[in-house]
Amino acid sequence: MDRCDKQMHQQHHHQQQQQQQLSMSKSARQRCNHEWIFSDVPTDITIEVGGRIFALHKYPLVSKSGRIRKLVAEHRDSDFSRIELLNLPGGAESFELAAKFCYGVNFEITSSNVAQLCCVSDYLEMTEEYAKDNLGSRTETYLDSVVCKSLEMCVEVLQHCEYLLPLADELKIANKCTDAIASKACAEQIASSFSRLEYSSSGRLHMNKQTKCDGDWWIEDISALRVDLYQRIIAAMKCRGVRPESIGASLVNYAQKVLTKKSNLWNPSSQSKDDIVVSSIEHEQRLVVEAIVSLLPVEKLVVPISFLFGLLRTAVLLDCTIACRLDLERRIGSQLEMATLDDLLIPSFRHAGDTLFDVDTVHRILVNFSQQEDSEEEMDDNSAYESDGLDSPSQSALLKVAKLVDNYLAEIAADANLKLSKFLVIAETLPADARTNHDGLYRAIDIYLKAHQGLTDLEKKKLSKLIDFQKLSQEAGAHAAQNERLPLQSIVQVLYFEQVRLRNALCCSYMETDHKPMHQSWRISSGALSAAMSPRDNYASLRRENRELKLELARLRMRLNDLEKEHVCMKKDMQKSNSRKFMSSFSRKFGKMSFFSHSNSRGSTSPSKQSQKTDPKVFGRNT
């Protein structure tokens, strides 16, 4: 029992010592926090702010603060000695600075506390009505004369305003800083432009484009702001006339900083995070993407097209608004000729079991591009005869996009889940004259046929109709002639056009050897005639030639129909006759088709032999 009593006594003594230490430390903190309070005069009012207690005196407070004066006056008859200030902007720290001001204690107003002091002075009604040079006027003067002269200080004030909204908006603190930043950026840009002016050798004043522009140093500073405040600054800069290139560079920098901060959000290992936290981060990033898209300049090429594709991927991933995604697709379509294959390969995020890549989004982008091409052609239709069609920027962009689409089709063709309808709609989006060479399209179709061997004959015919076999190279034609995956009708077309090509080559060779002077004179007279014609007549002549070519193509199609009928008859004979009779009939009918009527000439080569020489790097082997 004595030992137990002794242990209990020691524990009680230890607890008393701990309580004394805690009370001593607490009193020391209070003395440290309130050293500026009169120690020789007893306090007569207690104010609570955010859980902290301030034992103060009424007179210094009511002499500067209209709010506290009114509260004290309302309870003059009662024993009123405690006030709780709810929702005070800036919390206890801001109130402590305001109380120090009431007590006449000197402290420095800086860019880190001026926003809080402006808001707390408004909350406590510390205006000129209650005291001269009160806290409200002091902070406003500092904001106008010091902060707004420096872009860095304005950015710092805006960062503190993030936690003081909407009061900071009501007091126009954020608007003043936003306008000041936009004005400074515009002034810096003008000064930088003047510094790049120089006189040329002829004495003319011009802009030196090789000199680096140093007027965009503000891009890094404003990237630290929250998206809503950043959005205000960019909008103000647009109104002030800041260069679209500078705004585009700022948007790229801001997106890279903000959207890559939480890149681990989409890691499989991060899925164990709290759903509320993940949802909050998704919402924040969604707002950033939608804000950046709304701020993009209307001018082309002010941001890289790879950046636009990156925004589009993020917008699809975060399920941004339809308007946001359509805007990005329209912007990308307007400069699609600058894109690469990697840009177009947008993963399919949302739908399990669907295609590997988002084909629908790419189709909408191609539709936007085609519509833009159509509108440009309509605008330039009246002056089309004055321009060179193949050398025009529009035609050049069309050829680039056609090559890009063929490569894209070849990339997605191996996907087993890719439906034929989606493949066809991508291939048919561009106009017929977009491809001068059909090798890329043939390669993509061959890959699709190889990956989807269960297609019906009708579906294979739909695919083969996409190919203009006259636009195949010699290597591609040789490969197609042996390609068992193609329908028989397509193989017949390939063999026919190979023979036509061979005939033309022989005719050209004959004309060059026997009729060279006549040919040259014809070219000279034709050139003189073309030069004598007016541009409008020349354009009309080109249109007539185009119609004649179309008629010739129609005649070739009719000939192809005749060949198909011959083929049907051959199949019927094969079913009715025995093998020997069939072979003799086959040889007679094959001779009527006259595919190789010039094959007996010594200089000709059989297309069937040519077709064996295949480029394996481009087309692969038939399997």
UniProtKB/TrEMBL annotation:
N-terminal signal peptide: none
Listed pathway(s): Protein modification; protein ubiquitination
Record region (Disordered): 1-25, 372-391, 597-623
Domain BTB: 43-111
Compositional bias (Acidic residues): 373-383
Alphabetical list of InterPro entries matching this protein: BTB/POZ_dom, NPH3/RPT2-like, NPH3_dom, SKP1/BTB/POZ_sf
Bias (Basic and acidic residues) ranges: 612-623
Positions of the NPH3 domain: 216-501
Chain intervals with Polar residues compositional bias: 598-611
Coiled coil: 539-580
Spans through the membrane: none
Gene3D superfamilies reported for this sequence: Potassium Channel Kv1.1, Chain A
Pfam families (UniProt xref): BTB, NPH3
Domain of life: Eukaryota
Keywords, ordered alphabetically: Coiled coil, Ubl conjugation pathway
Family according to the record: Belongs to the NPH3 family.
Protein's recorded name: Phototropic-responsive NPH3 family protein
